[in-house]
From TrEMBL, chains A, B, C, D:
Keywords: 4Fe-4S, Glutamine amidotransferase, Glycosyltransferase, Iron, Iron-sulfur, Magnesium, Metal-binding, Purine biosynthesis, Transferase. GO terms for molecular function: amidophosphoribosyltransferase activity. Residues 16-235 form the Glutamine amidotransferase type-2 domain. Binds 1 Mg(2+) ion per subunit. SUPFAM superfamilies: N-terminal nucleophile aminohydrolases (Ntn hydrolases) (SSF56235), PRTase-like (SSF53271). It comes from Sphingomonas hankyongi. [4Fe-4S] cluster binds at C251, C397, C452, C455. This is Amidophosphoribosyltransferase. The gene is purF. The keyword Cytoplasm does not apply.
Length: 482, 482, 482, 482
C-alpha cells in the first residue's frame, strides 16, 4: 500500500486535488497527467469520470495515479471529450473504495459526477436530515451530501439544483461537476481552497494548481473566483455568481506547504513567497552560524531565502532518500530501537563541528523536529538553531486539511521556549503572522484578515456546525532562545 | 512494476548493491534496512538469504525493498543471526525471478549463497566450458558461474573452493558469500566496485556504501581492500589475500553519480567531491549568468560548488516531482506530442528573462539534456549554459554498470561543439578528466591511472574476453561555445 | 474467474440462493456452510452480512463460497449471533461487486440488510418513480428498489415499512432481511421461489433448500408459506400475513432442474419426483433400445426412472469430467474446430453398435443436444433416442431464472419433429405438461394451475409491468419420430 | 488454492499425468486440452514446454489447467509444432513452482525438457553421487536426477545420453522428453505406469490415458511398450528397445481407481473392468438388500456391476456436491463438531428404513468409510453392507502413487472383521486378489504376477534402494460378517 512515510505524519496534509477538462479528445489522458502533477495533494487514491456524449464511465483505484491511470486497459474504458478527476487521502480496503471520488449518481435528470476539494463543516447535520427523508448514503464522506441535496432539489436544471444545494452547505469547497449539461467548476464564497482555469487549444481546464496546467502544456487564464460557478459546454463558457458577496479568505497554508513551489497561487509564485518567508525569518530571527541547512524538500526555498538574506552559506546537511514513497515498517524489535534514518540521513562530513541553522516549513506534533535536531547533533553539529517558515500551528483545520486534534499540536501545548527545550534546539524561532503576510506583500488586517489563517490564529471564517472549537489560541511569544 | 522514470533512462545505472551481516539477532531486519539505503543501486528486484545455524532460507522479489521486506509474513520466514542481501536491476516476470540474487545452491559440502555487485568479463566463456562438463545453469547471469566453479572445485573447504573459483574469473566483483563455515566478503584485485566494512555491537557488517551502515547506526571500520577476502564466523574475523597484488582501479563514476552524496567512498565525502567538481567546472568553464540551476537531484552538489566558486546565485529553476518512482506511461496519442513534464517542471516565475547555468552530472544519450534546455527556453530563459560534472562519456562499461552500447553514447558520436548545437545550449562544457581527478585531490597518472575511468577514456583495466571494444575514444575538445 | 462451463450455458440458471440464521454463536460460519450447499443456485458471487448486537458487518466477493468464506481473516470480521447470506450469478469487476448481495443500507432507523431470491416484474417502473423523488441507486438490480421503498416509507417500525414496501412490488421474492429488530424471512403471495425454515438447537434458520439445513445438521421445520412474513428475535418467532390471500404458484422447474436431488421441495423428494418423471416418460414415449444413458449429472434420476419402468439397462454411456467448474476457453483456431469434449466424453467401448435412449432434463437452445447426439453417433451408437424430462421450454422466465430471450428458445422456434431433425436424433420426446404434474402426484388444473409453469405454457401468474410478452406459446405436438 | 477435498485424502492419488505431441500447429493448445482431460491425475500444478524450431518456451503454474492454460497471454508465448506437458500433485508456494514439470535445462548439446509420471526408487542415492561431482540441483524431486545423468553422460547424442541415464535408474517412469533432435516417449522395462500413443492427422501424440486422445479427436494407435523408447521427428517415428527384456508388470490400480472409466487401459475398457469387479464381488460376497448405492463418483461402475449381477436395484443414496473441487475449511469451532457434509449428503427420503449395499473402490485410512456408514445410518438405513471393489490395501506404493505410510493403512493394521467393526458396517467384504485378476480376464500367476499389485500383496517388482519395506503383508481373511 502506498502511504506517506512516518516522518510525513508530522505534516499537515492537503486532503485533495481536483482536475476537470472540457473539449479535448481522450480527455481522460489529460486528467491522468494533471492528477499526476497534483499527486502531492492526495496520494492514497485516485479516480476519473468521463462523459462520452451518451454515457458516463468511471474508474477509481487505491494508490497513485501512475500504476493505475497509465494502463491501457483502464484508459481505453474512459473515452470522451470531457472528464473530471480527483486524488485523495483515505484508508485502505473495499470500504474505502466507495469513498474514492469522483462520486457518481444516476439522478432522474441524468448522470451527475462530482470531485471535491475541501470540507463541509455542516455535513453531519445535513446528512441526518436527508437520511430521515429516505436518502440512502453510499459513502461516509461529506461530498455525498451535495449529491443528495441536488437529487432532492425541486429546481429545474442541474445548475439550479447545484446552486440550491450549495446554498445549504457551509465550509470549504472547490468542485468540478460533470453532467450532460456541461462541466461546472465552482469555489465556495470565501474561496478557501484554490481552483484555477486554463486553456489548451479549444479545451477549457480547471485544476487545483497551475502545475497541473504546466504538465499538459496548457496556459493559465485566471483563478475561478470565490463564489463563482463556471459552466462550460459546447455553447461556450458562462460565469454565475449566485451567492451573496463576502470578503474572500483563501488558505494561507497553501503558500507555506501544500502547493508545489512551481505553482502560482493567488497570482503569486509559491517559490518566491517561500524565499520571502525565509528572508523575513532571517530578519526576525537572525543567528550566527556556519551553514543554513534545509529540511528537504519542503524547507529548501525558505532556507535559500534565509541564506541569501543572512549571507550564511546554504548547504545540504541532510540527505533525503528517494525511496520513501512507500512506508517502510521497521521490521523487528532489534532494529526498532535504533535511530533508523530511512528518509533522512545526516551529511556528517559536512556538519561535523559546525553551527547549523535548520529551516523547516512547520512544526505539527514536533516528533520530526526532535529527530532532526538529534540527527544533527549525532553528526557532530556544534549548535543547532531551528527556524520555522510558518507561525506556530495552534488550531485544527476543518476545511479539508488533515490536522491532528488540537491536543496533539505541539504549539497548542507549550510556549516557543518550551518547544525549543522539547526539541533540544539551541534556539527556535517561528515567523510571526505579520511576517508571513509581509512575505505575501500584504499587511494583515487584524479585524478582517485577508486569508484563512485559522490554523495559526483560531480565527475561523465560517461557523463550525458539526464541530466546536472549545478554546482560543494560547498567547505565545514567537521567539525563544536558551 | 516499479521502474525508473523514462528520464532516468538517460543515466548510467549501477547494477547492484550488496549487504551482509554476521552476529545479530534477526539479521534479516538489518539487511532489509541496509538494502533500503542502497535502493538507488538497484530498484527492480531484491533478495535476502539467511542461515539460522541449520538451514538456509531465502526470499526474492521483484520490486523495491519496501513493500517486500517489511512484511511480517516474509520476515518471519528469515530467522537467524547471519544474512546477506542484494538489490538489482533486471527485467520482469518469472524468468527474471530466478536471476534475482542472492543465488543459492545446495552443494555437496552444504548450502552456498552469494550476492554479487559487478560483472565478470569472461563469464560466457567459462559458462560454455562448465556446460560441456555437465553443469546445468538455472539463471542467465554471470554470477552463477562462480557457484558452478565452486561446486566443481576439488579443493577442501568452501573458502579454498571460492578462491579457486575467483582465480578463474576476470572483471569486477564485490561479493558477500554465506556458507555454514561463515560469512565471506571479497573484492576483486582491482577493487573496481566498492565494499565497506562496519561494526554494530558484536556484529560485523559489509555493504556497498557507508549509508547502509548509517541507516542501522553501525560505525564504519574500513574498506574491504582490493583483492582481499574477509571471513567472519564465531571464531573471529580473518583476512586473506590470495591474489597477486596489482595497483587498484576503483570506479571513478561512483563519485560522479552512483553513490549517495552522504556516503564516504574511498575515504572521501561524495558530497564534498561533487562540490569540488562544481568548483573546478566554474574555473574551467566560467560564464556570465544570473542563476546557477541544478538538474535535480543529482546535479545539486555540483551546482552549489559552481555557485559558491562563481558567486552566481544558486536557485531552483527546475522542480522535480516526488512521484516518479513509478514510470508513468503517457497514456494516449493526444498527450504524447505535448512536451509533458512528468518528472521535471520549470520554475517559470524565476527563470523568465534570466541567463541560466544549468548543471547536470553527465550526458549519456543526450535526450534529457535536449528536453531540459528546451524547458528552460520555454519558460523564458534568455540564455542557457550547460555545465556537466563529468567528462564526456565515450565508452561502455563492462564492470557492472548498465551503459548503452557505444554507438548510442552522444559523446562517442560528436564533438562538444556539435553536442552544444544538438542540445540547443548557448554553451556547453564538461569538466576535464584532469579536473575530475583534481576534485578528488589527485593528479591523474596517465600511464597508470589511479581509478577505472574507462567510460571517459576507454582505458579498461582488464581484458574483455567476452566482448571486444572495436574503437578507441574519439579525440574531443571539452568546451564548446557558440 | 469461476464460471459455468459453456455447455451449461444451455441450461436455465437459478439466479440466487439465500440463507439466514438467528441465535447461534458465530452465525456467519453456518451461513457459509449453508451457502456452500446452495452453491448450485449461484456460482459467481457470494456475500454474508452479520449483526453483532451493535454493528452490521458485510463481506461480499466474486467467486465461490469456498475460497472466500472459509478464510480466517474474512470470517473473523463477521462476528455475531445473527446473519444472512446470498449466492448469485453476476458479471465480473468492480461494477458487479456493488450488485452482490446482501445489500445493506444505513437507514435513519438503523441498519437494513436484505438478500433476495427472485425477480420483481415492476422494478424498473418503481425505480423511475423513486429516482424522480431523489432516491439515488447504488446497484443496477431490482432488489435495491425494496430498500428505497423501506427508506421512504412513513410507517413506524422496520416490519411495517417492509410490508408497506412489499405491497408495492409485483413478481417473485423470497427474502431474508436483517435489522436491529430481528431477522425477517418472507415469501411473495404466490410463493414462486422456495424458502424453508429449520431449527438447530436454539437457532432458527431459513434457506432456499433443505440441503442447506442438512449440511449444518439442522432439522427441517416447515416451508415459509406464500405471503408469510416470519420475524425472529430474542422475544421469539412471530408470523404475519399482511397480503391478500391468493392461490399459490410455486415454480415447477425447481423439481425439474434447479433443486438438488437430495432436497425436499414443497414437501416432496426431488430425487423421487425426477425418477417419477423418467417413469412417466417411459410410458408416454417408449422405445426399443439397448441402454438408457443419462446426460450426467442432472439427467441421472430421470434415466434411472426410465430404466426401471422400461427394463432397459441403465449404463454410463457419457462420462463427465470433474474439472469443469472452471470454463476452459478453447485456446486456438487449430483446436477449436475439433469437436472438443471438455465436459463430456463418450464411453465408446460401451456405446459402439448399440441403440441408446439418451435422457436429459431439458432443452433450452438445443446446442448441447446437438453435440451429445453427435458424440453418441461418433462413438458408434446405432440409434440415438432423446427423451427430455420436462415439456418444451417455450417461454422466458421473469421471476428470477436466467432464460435466454424467447427467440433463442429452440422450442419457441420449431415443432418437436423439427427439433428431432435439428439435433439429429432418431426420435425425440418431451414429457407432457400433464405427465409432469402426474409425476408430482397432481392433476393439472388447466384453469388455475397449481404451479408456475409459465416457461412451458406462457401462463404467467403476475402481470409483467416492465416487460411484455408479445406472443403466446406455439401449439406443439410433444413427440416426434422420424 | 485448488486442492483435493478432505474426503479425498482417504484415496490413493496418482501423482502425475503426461502428454506430448509432435507435428501440429499450435502444439501447446493440444497439450492444454490433453492435460485438462488428465487433470484427475494431478490437480495442484501444471506445465507446458514447447520447441518452436529454434527456442524452447515454458510456462508452469500452480493450480488447474483451466484458468492457467486457456489464457491468451499464456498461450501466445508457447508457439511451435512440438510440445510436452505435465499435471502433478505438489505443495504450494515459490519453492514448489521450481518442482513443477516439465523440467527444462540448457545442456551443452541444446535444450532438454522432460515430463515424468512415476517415481525412481534409487533417486536419493544417485542424487548424492551427482552432488559430490559438482551437479547443482534446482528441484527437490526425483526427475531432475535424469537430467543431470544426461548432462554428465559422455555418449554422443541426446537419445544415447538418455538411454545411458535410464540404465542407471530403477523404479517407474513413463517419460516424454523434448530436445531439438525430436520428441522421445519411453516407459520403464516393467511398464509400471501407462503411456499410450495416438495420431491426429500428421501429428503423433503420447499421453497417460486414452481420454487425452479423445478430447482432441485423435485416434489411439497402441501402447508404448514396456522398455520401449519412441523417437519422433521430421524424419519419422523410430522405436528403440535398449533394455534387457523382462516380464511387464503394469499397475493394477489404474483399473481400480486412477484411470477415468472412459479410458482404455492395457487394451481394456476401464468401465467394463470396473463393472466386472462389481459383478465378481456380488458373486464373492452376496447379501440380501433393498438397494445398491455407489459412493459417487468412483464407485458407480462397480455398483452397477453389483446391481446387475445381484438384481438388487441401483439407486443414488448419496448425492455428491459439484462444488468441492476447492477444499472448504470448516470455519469455526461451532460448526466443526457437526457432522458436516460438504461433499456427500444422504438422499434420506430414499434410504430411510432400507437395507443398503454401499459400494466403494477402496479403503485406505478408513476415515471416509466411517463417515459414509454413519451418514447412511443417520439417514435411517436399516442395514449397511460395505463392498469394496479392490483387495485390502496393505502396502505403500513407491512407483509414483501418493500412499500414506504403511502404519496408516487400515488394512495393514487389522483384519477385515476388525475393519467391519471399526467402520460400523453390518458386513464388509473386499474382492479377492484372484477375483480382481478374473475381472481383468486373467488368472493370477502367483509366482510371476502379470501386474504390479504390490499395494495389495507387498510383491514389489523392483528393489527399493532408497526405502526398505520392513514387513510383509499380514495374512487376512477377505470377508467378515457380524
Amino acid at each position: 500500500m502506498l502511504t506517506t512515510n512516518p516522518f510525513d505524519d508530522d505534516k499537515l496534509r492537503e486532503e485533495c486535488g481536483i482536475f476537470g477538462i472540457w473539449g479535448a479528445e481522450n480527455a481522460a489522458s489529460f486528467v491522468a497527467l494533471g492528477l499526476h502533477a497534483l499527486q502531492h495533494r492526495g496520494q492514497e487514491a485516485a479516480g476519473i469520470t468521463v462523459f462520452d456524449g451518451k454515457h458516463f464511465h468511471s474508474h477509481r483505484a487505491m494508490g497513485h495515479v501512475a500504476g493505475n491511470f497509465d494502463r491501457d486497459d483502464v484508459m481505453r474504458k474512459l473515452p470522451g471529450r470531457t472528464a473530471i478527476g480527483h486524488v485523495r487521502y483515505s484508508t485502505t480496503g473495499e470500504t474505502a473504495l466507495r469513498n474514492v471520488q469522483p462520486l457518481f449518481a444516476d439522478l432522474a435528470q441524468g448522470g451527475f459526477a462530482v470531485a471535491h476539494n475541501g470540507n463541509l463543516s455542516n455535513a453531519m447535520k445535513l446528512r441526518r436530515t436527508l437520511n430521515r427523508r429516505g436518502s440512502i448514503f453510499q459513502s461516509t464522506g461529506d461530498t455525498e451530501v451535495i449529491i443528495h441535496l441536488v437529487a432532492t432539489s425541486d429546481r429545474g436544471n442541474n445548475l439550479d439544483k447545484l446552486t440550491d444545494a450549495l446554498k445549504q452547505v457551509e465550509g470549504a469547497y472547490s468542485l468540478v461537476v460533470l453532467t450532460d449539461e456541461g462541466l461546472v467548476a465552482c469555489r465556495d464564497p470565501l474561496g478557501i481552497r484554490p481552483l484555477v482555469m486554463g486553456k489548451l487549444g479549444e479545451a477549457t481546464i480547471f485544476a487545483s494548481e497551475t502545475v497541473a496546467l504546466d504538465v499538459i502544456g496548457a496556459s493559465y487564464l485566471r483563478d475561478v473566483e470565490p463564489g463563482e460557478l463556471v459552466l462550460v459546454n459546447d455553447t461556450g463558457i458562462r460565469s454565475y455568481r449566485p451567492f451573496e458577496k463576502v470578503a474572500p479568505r483563501p488558505c494561507i497554508f497553501e503558500h507555506v506547504y501544500f502547493s508545489r513551489p512551481d505553482s502560482i497561487a493567488e497570482g503569486q509564485s509559491v517559490y518566491e513567497v517561500r524565499k520571502n518567508i525565509g528572508a523575513e525569518l532571517a530578519r526576525e530571527a537572525p543567528v550566527e552560524a556556519d551553514y543554513v541547512v534545509p529540511v528537504p524538500d519542503s524547507g529548501v526555498p525558505a532556507a535559500l531565502g534565509y541564506s541569501q538574506a543572512s549571507a550564511i552559506p546554504f548547504e545540504l546537511g541532510i540527505i533525503r532518500s528517494h525511496y520513501v514513497g512507500r512506508t517502510f515498517i521497521q521490521p523487528s524489535q532489534e532494529v526498532r530501537h535504533l535511530g533508523v534514518k530511512l528518509k533522512h540521513n545526516a551529511n556528517s562530513a559536512l556538519v561535523r563541528g559546525k553551527r547549523i541553522v535548520l529551516v523547516d516549513d512547520s512544526i505539527v506534533r514536533g516528533t520530526t523536529s526532535v529527530k532532526l535536531v538529534q540527527m544533527m547533533r549525532d553528526a557532530g553539529a556544534r549548535e543547532v538553531h531551528m527556524r520555522i517558515a510558518s507561525p506556530p500551528t495552534t488550531h485544527s483545520c476543518f476545511y479539508g486539511v488533515d490536522t491532528p486534534e488540537r491536543a496533539k499540536l505541539l504549539a497548542a501545548q507549550m510556549s516557543v521556549a518550551a518547544m525549543a527545550d522539547y526539541i533540544n534546539a539551541d534556539s527556535l524561532a517561528f515567523i510571526s503572522i505579520e511576517g508571513l503576510y509581509r512575505a505575501l506583500g500584504e499587511e494583515r488586517d487584524n479585524n478582517q484578515p485577508q486569508r484563512c489563517d485559522a490554523c495559526f490564529t483560531g480565527n475561523y471564517p465560517t461557523s463550525l456546525t458539526d464541530l466546536t472549537e472549545k478554546e482560543g489560541a494560547p498567547s505565545l511569544s514567537l521567539v525563544a532562545s536558551r
